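Quick one:
INPUT:
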């Protein structure tokens, strides 16, 4: 089968995703040509399509993480050679058979990490590193609230937080996902998409609340996350798959709660931050903190895969296979 690439033609439904033949590519200075073996899917891909985070120009090739083999290197590239296994994240243009990638975004992939695991986990593990180490320094005894604890990011967050010695309270939508969250290491799991989180958290924490709430859900969940957080605790809001966040009364942050809006895409725009988070992500995968893969789809089935991703029903990460 010939090489293909997915073009996002504008903001809208999955009909805006078109399959196109891919022309031959050759790297320029500072670039490498990567043949993808697996492409990770993230909710930011949906945000780009529906216009929550519109792209600068259309058509564009969506997708922000993948893993594959280097086929060719451009002038002035050192430390990477044809045949090397690499992965990357936080870099637009992944929904394609091959791509030109700035060499400094490529992270060498150890042989003991599969292409599928790397593609499913790279951006999520980078995000987890940012949230657990930079947004709020989680350590022994920290009480954390992780929403969507059975999802692709949630699975990594729970495992990594437990490795750091945290007490993890997870939320999930179904009893089946509660079982998974427990398997990942969550100490307590609250079930129900619209569960009244704060009273249950207060009961679990002796009336104190969590030290940090990680809210990648948005919608009405943020207000409940704030209510579940202790005085002088932190709420990190970093996603809105449940919809836009309604206005928040500033008084809900008293006494002394901090609301932060971290973005892995913005954080990783700095090369030093990118390298630090990406190398930490690779090490986390080597320690078993990889995302659970909930499904694999041929690249041509991108519309079907995005529909499943957008539904929120997948218990783990989804992949596109060129």
């Amino acid at each position: 089968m010939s090489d293909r690439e997915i073009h996002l033609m504008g903001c809208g439904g999955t009909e805006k995703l078109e399959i196109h033949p891919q022309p031959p590519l050759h790297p320029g200075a500072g670039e490498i040509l990567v043949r993808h073996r697996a492409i990770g899917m993230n909710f930011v891909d949906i945000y780009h399509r529906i216009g929550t985070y519109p792209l600068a120009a259309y058509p564009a090739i969506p997708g922000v993480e993948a893993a594959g083999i280097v086929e060719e290197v451009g002038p002035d590239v050192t430390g990477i050679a044809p045949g090397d296994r690499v992965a990357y994240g936080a870099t637009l243009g992944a929904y394609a058979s091959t791509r030109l990638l700035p060499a400094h975004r490529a992270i060498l992939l150890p042989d003991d990490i599969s292409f599928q695991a790397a593609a499913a986990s790279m951006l999520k593990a980078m995000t987890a590193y940012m949230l657990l180490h930079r947004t709020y320094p989680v350590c022994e005894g920290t009480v954390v609230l992780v929403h969507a604890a059975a999802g692709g990011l949630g699975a990594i967050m729970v495992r990594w937080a437990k490795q750091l010695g945290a007490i993890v309270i997870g939320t999930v939508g179904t009893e089946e996902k509660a079982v998974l969250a427990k398997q990942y290491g969550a100490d307590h799991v609250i079930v129900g998409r619209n569960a009244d989180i704060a009273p249950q958290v207060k009961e679990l924490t002796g009336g104190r609340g969590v030290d940090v709430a990680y809210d990648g859900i948005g919608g009405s969940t943020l207000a409940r996350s704030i209510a579940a957080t202790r005085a002088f605790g932190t709420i990190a809001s970093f996603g809105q798959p449940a919809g836009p966040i309604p206005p928040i009364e500033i008084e809900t942050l008293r006494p002394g709660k901090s609301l932060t809006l971290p973005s892995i895409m913005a954080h990783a725009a700095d090369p030093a931050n990118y390298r630090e988070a990406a190398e930490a992500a690779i090490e986390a995968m080597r320690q078993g903190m990889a995302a659970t893969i909930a499904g694999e789809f041929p690249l041509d089935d991108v519309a079907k895969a995005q529909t499943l991703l957008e539904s929120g029903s997948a218990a783990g990460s989804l992949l596109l296979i060129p």
